[in-house]
Amino acid sequence: MSKIAVIGVGQTKFSRRPDASIKEIAFEAFKEAVDDAQISTGDIQASIICSATHYDKQRTPAGVIAEYLGLNPQPTFNVEAVCASSGVGLRIGWSFISSGLHDVVAVVGFQKMTELSSAEVQEVMGRSGDVMWESPFGTTMPGYFALYARAHMQKYGTKPEQLAKVAVKNRFYATKNPKAMFQKEITVEDVLKSRMIASPLRRYDCCSNSDGAACLILAKEEFARKVTSNPVWVAGLGLASSPMTLTSRDTSLSSFNCTTEAANQAYKMAGVTPTDIDLAVVHDCFTITEIINYEDLGFCERGKGGPFAEEGQTYLGGKIPVNIDGGLLAKGHPVGATGASQIRTLVKQLRGDAGETQVNDAKIGLAHNLGGIGMYCAVTILKV
Amino acid sequence: MSFGKFGKVSYVSETKLQEFEKALEAGRIMGTKCKTCGKLYFPPRADCACMKGDIEWVELKGNCRLLTYSTIYFAPASFRYEVPYILAVAQFEEGPTVLAPLNKDLKEDEIEIGMSLRLIPMELAGGRVIYELRKI
Q1: B91 chain-A contacts, CB cut-off 8 A
Q2: Which of A167, A382, B54, B92 falls between 20 and 30 A from A348, CA-CA?
Q3: Does pTM surpass 0.95?
């Protein structure tokens, strides 16, 4: 199989962006990625535009974004897998190159969540689950993950303090990432005192809506070697699904089956095991999700995610550094941009270009990108 | 006859499962069962994923056991005046599970995972029909 590299990465700061349109935030990330790859727009043979389109005022945003980026007449289209949109976009870009159709592809993830009024966001939020059987009872995103949190606490004795540790860690690392939304540290006490959103999850257990974009330039090996001396290779890909309704899932409600499935695929393809991973970026839409991810990805034993967080094993210097870019919780979660932003973090680390948070001698990184209420999961393993 | 009265808010009114709403109005909780593979579905489905058989309606007794729950304080726009409310997932003694509101009179400290509950059909003001989990 031919090798495919990530040759360029770019990201806007994740924040509220009342000063820019979706095209303009996409451009910021795209320009940074093109400059990073030291190529020109004309080298890009296709663009994959990733967003959760229910947040967009613009119908089919790939049209206006590809135009604005100067990517006509090359193929372009939208990819939507909610929060996993750009994780899935990377897989499609990989397939385009792997098939021989294209040599260089841009994957652009973006979201301008504040483009909708808060009433509109609330309305969209009310349709996060199966609208026939679950939304009619007022389910919410935090509510779904809270159901998992409660089940995990019951089954394994996971404590609110352990959840809080995840938020504290991710806020801490966000202060070292200039592109992160939140730049202030918090304490366990702050988390436990924050207002309840969906018990047992409190305000600081939840990520924030934000605006932002991230872009990846993927290229086939021959092209990558021509333009860069430090390509980062896509070594493993996994993509899987779980039923959307909670009632069709495993009744333990304390693990995401799509994660274990996607992780197995990616580990197998990359020929590595969880202990080989030097650092990971995982989908921490809520603190409980990060804890469950530790277990589902095999970083710790099943049921031990809480103590793993409590012991600080996912800090730099711990067993496996996780979300040392701030994660979704503190870097911000502009839905469509998250997967690409995770890959950007790994690429910087594997190039040895991560500054203060650099993991010593990082060679293998894993990105885990979960979609919606846990029905889609993309796992990507990068290597140098 | 339609599906438009099911739930506190409804998003789907057209389905092959209109019988469900009618039965709920009559106080019965119905699932569907595949005549070929025997799989029991709740919520009901009009088609079995085994692709081999027709489905039939079967009544569920409503006895279930609590799997997990959460009290919602931050709600979608249409539920803004209902907060806080409790959502729960429970497993029927017949096997399938249900996501439903838990009766508001229950306080959080009276709720225990594993406790016995019953899923009760209810009519709301304005003729909407729902089901709710209650302590028995």
Answers
A1: 251
A2: A167
A3: yes
